[in-house]
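(Deposited chain)
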Amino acid sequence: MKKISDIGFNKLKEFEGFRGTAYYCPGGKLTIGYGHTGMDVHPGDVISEYWAEHLLKADLYDLEKQVESLGEWNQPQFDALVSFAYNLGFYKLKTSTLMKTIKEGGNMRAIKQEFKKWIYAGGKIQTGLVKRREWEAKRFFEPDEMEPMRVRDWSDFHKTTRK
């Protein structure tokens, strides 16, 4: 199963920000920690950073499987799509014009424009979402830093290390 990279995970934490006390996000959802929502969050709840990170990892577990099910992604693409889906929900990613544009082979400009449409919460442009979408759009097109390791033929490794 594909996992979000450390780069993506740390950026996700940065975008979400840590909040130790439950609050209502601009979208009106009761939230705690690093963007955790759900039936287990109640007004007045308090959480440590340790448990907030644990909840984030648990939230990402199913989301990563869902994003992986949408196609073959390199690591930067996967990071960008997981960040997007964590913020908006998997269903919105799956049914978005962004995903449609990607699946239809849209060019870089078109895909970046689709990312940048998702900057509203509570009917208002959110500065944090503008920055997040800019990062996601940029990350989606970065080269996969691990690709050279995956494509190398390791069968001859012993020949080059023993001389």
Remarks:
- The chain has a mean pLDDT of 92.
